[in-house]
Design goal:
Length: 209
């Protein structure tokens, strides 16, 4: 009885809604591209992570063995995908309505201190995104140990992640993020992204550390 009660109280992962209309980022990201990315690709990681957890829970209930190595590898991939996409959507806003331009406030000061200029930061972040091997991400993260900002280049959703850093800003450069709008042209998508970066969100994440 106690076990059953515990099981019903456990939360599952859920797909968060987009924080804007699916056509709000046009012309930089099309409605079709954004809808597929959110409704199909992000959803797949939510479904996958929940399925991995259910498999673990079922094995626990039955006292059965699982292939722990394979299952945890999949779980890391799926949770990574879900967490990064959840950070990604609010990292963007419609161009001219919160999206694009340059950072201001504390974030701008931090970027200047670390990179010398916004242009240098933008160039490094762009290069990290462009050169992520296969499918991956570029991220701007904060290291609590040094109180510094650093760029992270993530492969898949979970490789090369710096443990316990706080991610402030992410750019998804999986081909599924741009195949409708740019076919295989990742550089074109990265260029489009800079028009819709929501610097206010990034600043708020920095403030809330
Ligand atoms: Mn994606």
């Amino acid at each position: 009885m106690a076990e059953q009660k515990m099981a019903t109280a456990l939360k599952k992962y859920e797909l968060p809604p987009l924080p804007y209309a699916p056509d709000a980022l046009e012309p930089h990201i099309s409605k079709e591209q954004l809808t597929l990315h959110h409704d199909k690709h992000h959803q797949a990681y939510v479904t996958g992570a929940n399925a991995n957890l259910e498999k673990l829970e079922k094995a626990r209930q039955e006292g059965a063995e699982v292939d722990m190595k394979a299952l945890l590898k999949e779980l890391s991939f799926n949770i990574g995908g879900h967490v990064l996409h959840t950070l990604f959507w609010p990292t963007m806003a419609p161009a001219g309505k919160g999206g694009g331009g340059k950072p201001t406030g504390a974030l701008a000061d931090r970027i200047d201190r670390e990179w010398g200029s916004f242009d240098r930061f933008k160039a490094e972040f762009t290069k990290a995104a462009a050169s992520a091997e296969g499918s991956g991400w570029a991220a701007l993260a904060h290291d609590a140990l040094t109180d510094r900002l650093m760029i992270m280049q993530i492969e898949k959703h979970n490789v090369n992640v710096y443990p316990n850093f706080s991610i402030l800003m992410v750019l998804d450069v999986w081909e599924h993020a741009y195949y409708v709008d740019h076919r295989n042209n990742r550089a074109g998508f990265i260029e489009a992204f800079w028009n819709v970066v929501n610097w206010d969100t990034v600043n708020k994440r920095l403030e809330n550390l």
